[in-house]
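Inverse folding, one chain.
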């Protein structure tokens, strides 16, 4: 291999050569994925680009190791190196976020939330069946055990943000287990402002008396006042749980501080590690000391064996997030998001809440006469990757939707700044203002069919490519 190639290029080239020798189609797909990501204007609010160090930390023999249990207390022998990376990841997380305890084993955000739910239930609810479940492997519980567990825990209540106001499925909604574990009620936003209505939330909490109040969102473009949320939780005897998956990078980067930093206010905080935090795909739970013991039972209570290779990558990503430049990155995410919002507003677009204070913008595309599905497809044809999202009181439901969610973490990582966001706003507006609804095969106008005016997709794709060419993705990686 040429001595002039960067270390990263050599590492990835060797890795792909090894894969190609066994299954060339996989090597080709991996290479193509990098090419596709390099060429697209990625505005998916929950995605990012992890560093080469994070990516490389995942591809190794840690993947071969079982390590159920916790640091120094494993159900398998030979875990000393796993202990090293898990302890490091946990220590970095505690220092970075100022948390009393960090559990870095969850494989995803849903897993992290399940760990948190069980920890809250186990520490707050008197239940002999739960005590049994705590000491038995999940597979060893009988049908009668499950019946008793449901009976003893079944009347527990959760109050979470409604889906169409920007909440998440795991906050008590039917398609997720959380909606079956708990009796659920939701709080929403003020229809006039689009902002969380804390007074209504307080009223609902007083009447509903939930065990858990969940704060956090996947499509709310404003800040959440966690001090107020805690006050409400305390008033009704609820545990405040914050799911900060979307904005963990803004908390780590000290953009969200004081009342807007969940760590000092919530008893338990969950997150993914791959969104604005820019780590590997995975989850994490941060909590106050009194919940630590229950949280650490996550595996085997609700998790399969930990993924040591991912915990190694979490340790690397968290070490990166402790560097001063991460704060600059976090601030630029929000600057970019505000610039994108202003660029769209200037062009007459309608934004939920009229703007943004965080990493995302929720564009209501009904003013363009489109559904979210049509807008998402027309943008994709033009080299702009977004995802459709419901807006509050959405008339088109969760599948077709009336909104497009736009997030700036990935483009910020790539180095784009506020001047470029103005151009991105122009590209989005250019596409949407020249897209119309179209008839489906049956001749009827459908919520999915659309027509993009001739030449727009090509022109916008070229402009997007020009914009991206000034900010190469993984500039040190040359796959040849
Ligand atoms: N799927 C993530 C998102 O896109 O927001 C949340 O789980």
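Residues assigned per position:
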């Amino acid at each position: 291999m040429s001595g002039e190639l960067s270390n990263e290029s050599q590492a990835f080239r060797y890795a792909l050569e090894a894969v190609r020798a066994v299954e060339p189609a996989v090597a080709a797909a991996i290479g193509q994925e990098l090419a596709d990501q390099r060429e697209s204007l990625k505005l998916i609010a929950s995605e990012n680009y992890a560093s080469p160090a994070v990516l490389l930390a995942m591809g190794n023999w840690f993947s071969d190791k079982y390590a159920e249990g916790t640091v120094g207390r494993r159900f398998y022998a030979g875990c000393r190196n796993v202990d090293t990376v898990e302890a490091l990841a946990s220590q970095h997380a505690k220092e970075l976020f100022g948390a009393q305890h960090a559990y870095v084993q969850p494989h995803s955000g849903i897993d992290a939330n399940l760990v948190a739910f069980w920890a809250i239930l186990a520490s707050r609810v008197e239940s002999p069946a739960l005590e049994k479940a705590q000491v038995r492997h999940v597979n060893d519980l009988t049908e009668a055990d499950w019946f008793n567990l449901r009976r003893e825990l079944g009347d527990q209540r959760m109050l979470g943000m409604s889906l169409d106001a920007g909440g998440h499925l795991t906050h008590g909604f039917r398609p997720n287990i959380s909606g079956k574990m708990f009796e659920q009620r939701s709080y929403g936003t003020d229809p006039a402002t689009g902002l969380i209505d804390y007074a209504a939330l307080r009223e609902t909490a007083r009447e509903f008396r939930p065990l858990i109040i969940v704060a956090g969102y996947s499509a709310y473009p404003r800040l959440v006042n966690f001090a107020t949320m805690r006050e409400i939780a305390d008033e009704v005897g609820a545990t405040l749980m914050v799911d900060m998956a979307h904005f963990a990078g803004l908390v780590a980067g000290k953009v969200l501080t004081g009342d807007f930093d969940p760590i000092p206010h919530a008893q338990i905080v969950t997150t993914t590690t791959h969104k604005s935090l820019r780590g590997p795909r995975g989850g994490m739970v941060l909590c106050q000391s009194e919940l630590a013991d229950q949280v650490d039972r996550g595996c085997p209570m609700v998790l399969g064996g930990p993924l040591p290779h991912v915990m190694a990558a979490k340790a690397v990503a968290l070490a990166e997030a402790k560097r001063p430049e991460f704060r600059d990155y976090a601030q630029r995410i929000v600057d970019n998001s505000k610039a994108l919002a202003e660029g769209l507003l200037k062009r007459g677009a309608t934004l939920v809440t009229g703007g943004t204070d965080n990493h995302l913008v929720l564009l209501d595309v009904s003013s363009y006469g489109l559904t979210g599905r049509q807008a998402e497809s027309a943008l994709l044809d033009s080299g702009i990757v977004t995802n459709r999202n419901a807006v509050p009181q959405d008339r088109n439901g969760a599948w077709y939707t009336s909104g497009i969610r736009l997030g700036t973490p990935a483009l910020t990582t790539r180095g784009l700044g506020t001047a470029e966001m103005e151009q991105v706003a122009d590209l989005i507006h250019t596409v949407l203002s020249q897209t119309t609804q179209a008839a489906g095969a049956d001749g009827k106008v459908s919520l999915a069919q659309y027509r993009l005016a001739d030449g727009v997709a090509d022109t916008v794709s070229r402009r997007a490519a020009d914009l991206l060419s000034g900010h190469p993705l993984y500039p040190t990686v040359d796959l040849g």
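The longest strand covers residues 445-452. The chain has a mean pLDDT of 95.
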